[in-house]
Specification:
Blueprint lengths: L50 E6 L3 H13 L6 E5 L27 H7 L11 E4 L4 E4 L2 H10 L18 H16 L1 H6 L4 H22 L12 H10 L2 H5 L14 H11 L10 H11 L49 H4 L6
Parallel strand pairs: 1-2
Antiparallel strand pairs: 1-3, 3-4
Keywords: Transferase
GO molecular function, one term: glutathione transferase activity
Protein name: Glutathione S-transferase family protein
Length: about 350
């Protein structure tokens, strides 16, 4: 199952059909709505060591959770399992782990955790997902609420100096901006890439770049999307921008401009990329492998492009001249855990031809 939320067809080949000919792409947003909360109102109270966050570095929705968990310093209370970048039509798999089995959950496929709770689960086996370790059952895959709950419900276990990514006085504005970004950018690139008709593609394309122009105007005068610090809204936009030139520009035909040809957004993205907790969670090698291999109906050769040059992500962005403080009164997160470090060659390869 893909991060895109589409439903599988029959068979087990990696090359599922992601495009429905003649139709507009529509994301299935029916996620498991169970919440992990401080009061445990859904039967799942916040508890150190009880849950495991399952992600794939290739997936932009999962990447949000990786970033937020790190910024808030929740590594010691919420462990993380990492799926490989490709999957078949059944499930994401733990092929990066020894013998292809998650070392904590002891399962080879994420679907095992879904079926442990819902034996007849009918929808996509998506990441991110949070699994209860003692039972081996999935709790939630509701990606918009996972990160919000990490910020609000897990507050007791935040590190000293953790930023407030969802401040109460800015929540309505954060929600409004995040919804526009989701509709036209986060999901908009998929509506381009998985469009089943010329008309639906062009409509999604126009909305995508109209929203990117709107974001350019907004970010021309302020360093971050809402307020003068990093918030949930920035996390949500960043994971799409990070994949734009490597995947969406070519593979999804979002080709009016590359990100690197839109100076304001390019500098904004590099500002975040160079902020601890953002760029060091990005694995460009896995990102490209996922999209270009799994989406076989879009890229039947499954050839993974060699570019783009990653060194430009580390060049000066000069966004600090707009003011603002990334972590507010807080501090940057500590370096990633050794077992969670992205190889430098996958993250910001500075070698050029």
């Amino acid at each position: 199952m893909s991060d895109d939320g589409t439903q599988p067809s029959t068979g087990t080949d990696v090359g599922a059909n992601f495009v429905d000919p003649g139709k507009e792409f529509s994301r299935d947003m029916r996620y498991i709505t169970t919440r992990i909360t401080a009061d445990g109102r859904d039967g799942y109270p916040v508890e150190p060591g009880r849950y495991r966050l399952i992600v794939a570095r290739a997936c932009p929705w999962a990447n949000r959770a990786i970033i937020v968990r790190r910024l808030l310093g929740l590594e010691s209370v919420l462990s993380m399992g990492i799926c490989g970048p490709t999957h078949d039509e059944r499930s994401w798999t733990f092929d990066l782990d020894p013998e292809g089995v998650d070392p904590v959950l002891k399962i080879p496929r994420l679907q095992d955790a879904y079926f442990a709770r819902f034996p007849d689960y009918p929808r996509g086996i998506t990441v991110p997902a949070i699994v209860e370790i003692p039972t081996g059952q999935v709790v939630t895959n509701d990606f918009p609420n996972i990160t919000l709950d990490l910020s609000t419900e897990w507050k007791e276990f935040h590190r000293d100096g953790a930023p407030d990514l969802y401040p109460k006085d800015l929540r309505s504005e954060i929600d409004e901006v995040a919804e526009l970004v989701f509709r036209d950018v986060n999901n908009g690139v998929y509506r381009c890439g998985f469009a089943g008709s010329q008309e639906s593609y062009e409509s999604a394309y126009d909305r995508l770049f109209e929203r990117l122009d709107w974001l350019t105007e907004r970010l021309s005068a302020q360093r971050f999307l809402v307020g003068d610090t990093i918030t949930e809204a920035d996390v949500r936009l960043f994971t799409t921008l990070a994949r734009f030139d490597a995947v969406y520009h070519g593979h999804f035909k979002c080709n009016r401009n590359k990100l690197s040809e839109m100076p304001v957004l390019w500098n904004y993205a590099r500002d975040l990329f160079q902020t601890p907790g953002f760029g060091d969670t990005i694995d460009f090698a896995q990102i490209k492998e996922h999209y270009y291999i799994v989406h076989k109906d879009i890229n039947p050769t499954q050839i993974v492009p060699k570019g783009p040059d990653l060194s430009h992500w580390l060049e000066p962005h000069n966004r600090e001249t707009l003011g603002g403080h990334p972590f507010g009164n807080g501090t940057p997160p500590h370096p990633p855990l050794p077992e969670e470090v992205v190889p430098l060659s996958h993250w910001a390869n500075t070698e050029r031809d």
